[in-house]
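Re: the pair you flagged

First of the two:
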Amino acid sequence: MKILIMGAGAVGAYFGSILSREKKSVTLVARGKNYESMVSNGLKIESVVAGNFVTTPRVIQSSTQIDEKFDLILFSVKGYDSEEAIEFIKTAVGNNTVIVTLQNGVSSRKRLVDCFGDEQVLQGVTYIDSTIVSPGVISQSGGVCNILFGEHNGQITERVKGIKEALTVSSGMDVQIPENINVSLWEKMAVVCTLAGMSCLTREEFVDVFNNPTTFNIAKKLIEEVIAVGKGSGIPLKNNVFDKTIGYLAERNGQFVASMYVDLKNGRPIELYDLNGGVASIGQRVGVPTPINDFIHDALAIYFKRSLAMRNN
């Protein structure tokens, strides 16, 4: 199976390196200094799960370098880069291409469906703590590196089985087909909106948010809001999802830092409208109040607009 990874950032490059190490047919899309380093020096991984290694997958930076149709595209760019990335992959998409979105937020699949149609896009979810240390160098910490994906209707189709087989490797990442991918998506939303939103709001790593009673109480209310919006949207979230979210955050307390917070500290755009802003927007549409998410959106909106404008100039 020919695989294209659209967005060789911290997440896409890590998964691409694992697939490359296993001799899978994989092409990575990178840009700027990241692209230059990968072409010149290979892709270097420093991982607590997969070990330290260097691999040399095919890397491209322009759609003019695409000379074939791909069987599978893993779509892993930041939400605010979606429009440009969708345009980029058009020449790589054939009649039988399947796109699995690994983006944060619950609107990613719709953006892709609007362009490529419902049949060609699968929802995915990923849990991984990885960062770009320097161009072409990815650090992965924590013990979870997985991809969950599935059909929107929950059926275990032959193509889903085929994709799982193509992505299965001996080590470094775990691939799962959950019972309901939409439930998995909203379960992650509860985690990442809390982790990212509270860290960016307080300008502190989540370990400090978690260990402070005042901010931890706000975080718990934020989780409740995300769950309520998910249920209000018709997602059959289980009654234990709140405790499950708290347990996940507690178990990994101090082990990870939200990538959105890292972006904010470095003056880069943040995924505000895919996370807390997205929850607030959906909550308004389905009639579920989201005062915590509203406040986080409002507090960070000025920064988001300024950082995006600065990057585009």
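Second of the two:
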Amino acid sequence: MNNYWGAPTPIKTYISNGAIVSYPYLTYDPTGLSKVAPLAEDAELVLLKKAMNLIEQNDLLAAREICLDIIDNYSDSYAAFNALSLLTRTFDLSEKETTKLKFKTLFNKDKKKLNAVAGLILAELDKENKLKNIDEVISKHKDDAIIEDALFAKFLYYYNDIQDKENARLVSNELDKLFPNSVSNIDAHQHLGDKDYLQKEYSFAKTDQEQKQNIVASPLPTEYNLFVNYPNPFNPVTVIKYALPYASNVNITVYNTLGQIVKEYFEGTKEAGYYTVIFDGENLSSGVYFYSIKTITSNEKENFNATKKMSLIK
């Protein structure tokens, strides 16, 4: 935070309806070497920053009004998704029913992805009606890509929450039909222990030791990839997966919305293959976080950088 990024306004990096937020940042070169004049921040980012400061000051009502303002007036921006996640922090424990009602209202307001995400957050908040809320998201957004996240949330409800593997299998079959090559589908098969399926189609290697012993005969990836973490939203643990087509030195970093590093994984040099790291947000507050990967091959001829967004909801 409070860094100068080489320009008055840092370049925004967009990640599937989200973005890395570099604020608070300096709009001038503190060394005095740059002559570029400072520029104003985007209005929605100024509001988001103000809401975060108000939460730190425990002025939850004022922060809530600002979050709702961003959601209403900047609904197509990446800031709106950050505000939606931040909104959960503007209610105290005595306001559980008010919180659920607000997210129910946001879910019913429109058919945008932002509203669908509100519905999935509601499912986490309203444990007694979790399945019903997930099904409502699926029904309302059946033609949208967000249904993949909703189906996987439903799978995890059956598999983890009530330990109903029979119905979890039925949801996995639905993922097979609609999203056969998705990470959520692969992850569902991993939960169910479908080793034959994973070895034949995708087979994420479990550990370095298994790779060395060739216990898992997994096809090597043909390109670099940083996959969407699962589950997402999560509480408090999630899995981050990545793919290497060549032996590479790997560094994975997790940031908060202020750009502060909350966790680093110095993976060292990895052979070509699929890998996972486990991120535990037990000691972090609810909100949006970003995870990035930086790789470089041993001969320094190939490198790969990517960033994705995840939400921690407690």
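The chain is about 40% helix and 20% strand.

-B.
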